[in-house]
Fold this protein.
Amino acid sequence: MAAMTSFRRYVEQYGLPRSLYVDRAGIYETARTATADEELAESGPLTQFGRAMSELEVELICAHSPQAKGRVERRHAVFQDRLVKALRLSGIDDLDSANRFLEEKFLPEMNERFTVTATRTANMHRRLPRTLKLDDALCLQESRVVHNDWTVQWRGRRFQLAAANQSLALVRQSVLVCEHLDGTIRLMRSGRELAWHEIFERRTNQRSAAAGPTGVGRAGIRPAADHPWRTKVLPPRVAPPACPPCCASVASVATLPALPPLRKADRPAGKKKKRKKKSRPLTVAGHF
């Protein structure tokens, strides 16, 4: 917004330039992916300032060399150093007085001292076309979709479209939200301004508690205990057939006689392990 405000004041004083030489800051150049509309227009991804310059037919030249960027930074350093000291010497401590001092005294003295005569003295500025309004271009523009209740949400605010726009069938359609430099907001659709008013109360989702075809409301009411939904339609359980009584008597474990322990001779024979023979060292007798 500050860059648009400065450009507007420049245009009102000198006219519309043919090009602007700027650095590669984020307000002039962006690295995001182009939208579908930008790809169809073959304009590439644009910032808000770049889109405004495209509508005004002003070429935006971004500096690519350190020397070119240094010219801009040196100019900024002059204002950050000399202007602050000049305001302090003049005893200025409010914004309005500082702006008057900048336009009436500081800038004329700076231009008279450091201005270099151009090689071509012809004035290349243009007049603003009558068909083009500066306020329509120098503003923030964002696209929003109209909801089913004819409202548009934008940066935490809600705008209600008027009934006069019903013939346009704007539900689920995109409208253009424009915020101008003075803070005013306009809603546009295909170059036509839409009537609207802002809604300040918060919308709540209220469901109807009326009973539906099944007798249950939509407000989360639980069905009654005798409701068909609570009745389980299952076949009745059938008891398993009873086992016939056992006639044989079972002897108690405690009355059984104890078995005598097995002797070593009565134990079953197991596999015998084979012992490995130890190898003896080989000795050779003789003379060498």
About this structure: The longest helix spans residues 66-90. The first strand starts at residue 19 and ends at 22. The chain has a mean pLDDT of 79.
